[in-house]
Specification:
This protein is α/β, with parallel strands linked by helices. It has two domains: 49-266, no CATH class; 282-365 and 382-587, Alpha/Beta hydrolase fold, catalytic domain (Rossmann fold). It contains 21 helices and 19 strands. The protein has helices at residues 3-20, 48-71, 76-94, 99-122, 195-198, 223-226, 265-272, 278-283, 322-328, 332-337, 351-369, 388-394, 403-408, 420-430, 457-465, 470-482, 489-493, 498-501, 507-514, 545-548, 570-587; strands at residues 126-127, 130-133, 140-142, 144-147, 156-160, 175-176, 181-187, 205-214, 237-242, 261-262, 294-297, 306-311, 338-344, 381-386, 438-444, 522-528, 531-533, 537-539, 555-559. The protein starts with a helix and ends with a helix.
């Protein structure tokens, strides 16, 4: 650089410094900057309501177009519904204070999310691993997270997004408006040999609310951006499956809309997959398949929950309890402290044999779930039996000694001549000990003294229609031939049916009635009394009040209902809720 040039630069620096800091505190001066006339002036900010309405317009268009794609079985419907959900989500985020926008966006969002889940299932883009969105050459996996549910994402068999049809066995539906899509999450049975598989019903579902939760607002959350080359493992959103009992609201930026819920949906889903086996189990008790006795867990077991075991009555099945379960499962205390187990059994089978299977199943379940005996909840079980189910419940907590055998035989059991395998099969029905983990029993319309209906023509006709299993008849005939006169006349002639047991004169029923309940078991009675009979007095058309009463119960509640409706009545449901609260207080759990 030449001297002249260097001087020129130095002068320029001095001038600049002098302009920056003027002497004597004088204000600095600078020439006004030239205005670029080629750029338009800045536009005023767009109101949030207007931005939100733009998101809603796009959401509606995307949802409509996606519905057309879904009808044509086009997999692009998945991405269309996904983006519609995003636009509805962003509408709420943009304008969280508008109730009108929240209401419309929530409706569009729920409809689009239902379409998304159904289309994803149809095209194989939904599994326990997650929800697949994006183009075929660059798919993105949206992970599934369960929140407050008794199942992890890997244990989900299906997400049933469609609203289940009503069922006559459930009288009302427990729903709550809000944000998200209520679904029934169907639980996989579990690996072979696992306790979850052993005690799983044909279909096991839990209530959840699906929320496709986007991480960022506005256009930054577009599917195209996250499907780019730098986002190979980055999910654009998370599909939450939340327990609507435990989680009350959704966070969408500053907005906190209430979480939607349908607590009845999983019960309707299970009923849809449950054959009504009541009559079949009565007429053909050993028909195989769905008539085989077993314990079923309504939902996956959770440690620290007290089992409430529901036992149905004659010519019925476990579906009869779903109306009561619908009320209990909408009650947060039951959801958090209890779990429902169901005993499925053929009611036309041998009464004592079915009770023996129940004892074995309960013992196996407790031992498998808690081999060390450290879970106090499992040691505080509650049994609830309707009609003949109440008699089965009593047979879980009494010590019969020889009373039951003496009711049917004239000689001691050990003196009866029979093959060892027959002795092993018959013994558990007559000789057993009370289950120590059962602490409370609720009898509902239970015929402790029998039912006069069993002695009438309709009862005798029903008894004659029951098909005795050939193998049981062969055992009976073999024992009778080898031991003439050993059995009492009625039992020597033929195998008794469950109808025979319910006759007021039944020696077996009378023996059971006289067996005392141990002091560590608390009992309650719920009795129907809508009908007035000139012969037997007040009752429920099947069981008189005098037969349903049991000495020693700590509470007795009369319900104005007939026999098959007693456990559906609000008074009975409220009484059971009260009993369960009392059980928590008295057990300290």
């Amino acid at each position: 650089m030449g001297v002249r040039a260097g001087v020129r630069v130095g002068l320029m620096l001095i001038v600049l410094l002098g302009l920056a800091v003027a002497p004597d505190g004088a204000a600095a001066w600078a020439a006004p900057a030239a205005v670029d006339q080629s750029k338009p002036p800045l536009a005023p900010p767009v109101p949030p309501e207007q931005v939100a309405q733009g998101h809603l317009r796009r959401a509606r268009k995307l949802a409509t177009a996606s519905a057309d794609l879904a009808k044509a079985c086009d997999w692009h419907a998945v991405d269309g519904y996904y983006t519609a959900c995003e636009e509805a989500w962003n509408a709420i985020w943009t304008c969280p204070g508008s109730e009108e926008i929240l209401c419309e966006a929530s409706t569009i969002y729920a409809d689009a999310l239902q379409g998304l889940l159904e289309a994803a299932h149809c095209h194989g883009r939904l599994s326990g691993q997650g929800l697949i969105v994006g183009p075929l050459w660059k798919p993105v996996c949206v992970p599934i997270q369960t929140r407050g549910l008794p199942v992890e994402a890997a244990g989900i068999e299906a997400i049933e997004a469609a609203c289940r049809p009503a069922d006559r066995r459930i009288s009302r539906r427990h729903v709550r408006g809000g944000f998200g899509l209520p679904v029934a999450v169907r639980v996989a049975a579990g690996p072979e040999g696992s306790v979850t598989r052993e005690f799983a019903p044909p279909r096991q579902s839990v209530a959840a609310t699906a929320v496709l939760r986007f991480k960022m607002p506005g256009a930054e959350n577009s599917l195209e951006k996250f499907a780019g080359p730098l986002a190979l493992d980055h999910a654009p959103a998370i599909l939450d499956l939340a327990n609507p009992i435990e989680i009350a609201s959704v966070h969408i930026g500053p907005a906190r809309p209430l979480l939607a819920a349908d607590l009845t949906a999983p019960l309707l889903d299970m009923l849809e997959g449950m054959p009504e086996a009541g009559i079949q189990g009565f007429l053909q008790p050993f028909g195989g398949g769905d008539t085989q006795p077993r314990i079923e867990f309504l939902q996956p077991h959770q440690r620290g929950r007290i089992p409430v075991v529901f036992i149905h009555g004659l010519a019925s099945d476990e579906g009869t309890w779903f109306d009561m379960l619908n009320e209990l499962l909408s009650w947060p205390t039951f959801q958090r402290r209890y779990e429902a187990w169901l005993y499925h059994y053929p009611t036309g089978a041998s009464f004592l044999q079915s009770s023996a299977v129940l004892r074995r199943e309960l013992t196996t379940a407790v031992q498998r779930l808690d081999p060390t005996g450290s879970d106090r909840a499992l040691q505080s079980m509650v049994l609830v039996g309707h009609s003949m189910g109440g008699l089965h419940a009593k047979l879980q907590v009494v010590e019969p000694g020889t009373a039951l055998w003496d009711a049917i035989a004239c000689r001691p059991f050990e003196e009866i001549s029979m093959r060892p395998e027959i002795r092993k099969a018959l013994g558990p029905g007559y000789f057993f000990h009370p289950r120590p983990f059962v602490k409370r029993v609720v009898f509902i319309a239970t015929p402790h003294r029998g039912s006069t209906l069993a002695t009438l023509g309709i009862g005798r006709a029903a008894s004659l229609t029951v098909r005795q299993p050939p193998e049981m008849k062969a055992i009976h005939d073999e024992v009778v031939q080898a031991n003439p006169g050993a059995l009492r006349p009625d039992y020597e002639r033929s195998l008794p049916t469950t109808i025979d047991l319910l006759e007021p004169s039944s020696p077996l029923l009378n023996a059971l009635r006289e067996l005392p309940v141990p002091c560590w078991v608390t009992t309650h009675s719920i009795i129907g009394n809508e009908h007035q009979s000139p012969v037997s007095g007040p009752g429920d058309c099947i069981v008189p009040v005098s037969s349903a009463r049991l000495p020693g119960v700590v509470s007795e509640t009369l319900v104005p209902a007939t026999h098959t409706k007693v456990h559906h009545h609000p008074i009975a449901m409220n009484e059971l809720s009260r009993i369960l609260i009392q059980h928590l207080h008295e057990t300290g759990l």
